[in-house]
Design a protein that fits this description.
By secondary structure, the chain is an alpha/beta fold. It has helices spanning 17-25, 48-53, 62-71, 94-112, and strands at residues 6-11, 32-37, 56-59, 79-82. The protein has one domain: Rossmann fold. Helix 1 (17-25) links the parallel strand 1 and strand 2.
């Protein structure tokens, strides 16, 4: 693959989990990353443009994937992978950083071999 894949990381309000993921991967040369939230109260709310841009979407919980499928069923959606990370962490929490790094890297290795 010559082009870097576009990775969208989504959580409830784009305050802790997805923002942490964007922060830890923002300078990664293997892919482009952006984060968004599902709630109308999100710092950066997910949009159709985000979903058109993304090659792969990560959500934290199964319910978030269902919400994206429901809200954007009129779109041809990219793969939406569930990371299974509960909303128990603060922004840049050490354990959260480790879980995000491990799970996102494992999936990228599997899907893109990067």
């Amino acid at each position: 693959m010559t082009e870097r894949p576009n990775i969208l990381v989504v959580c409830g309000r784009n305050k802790k989990r997805s923002r942490t993921a964007e922060h830890i991967f923002k300078n990664d040369d293997r892919f482009n990353v952006r984060s968004a939230g599902l709630s109308p109260k999100s710092d950066r709310k997910i949009s159709e443009n985000d979903l058109h841009w993304a090659n792969l979407v990560f959500v934290m919980e199964t319910g978030q994937r269902a919400k994206i499928w429901e809200q954007y069923q009129h779109l041809e959606l990219p793969t939406v992978a569930v990371l299974d990370i509960p909303d128990d962490y603060e922004f840049m929490d050490e354990e959260l950083v480790e879980m995000l790094s491990d799970r996102i890297n494992d999936t990228l290795k599997e899907v893109y071999n990067i």
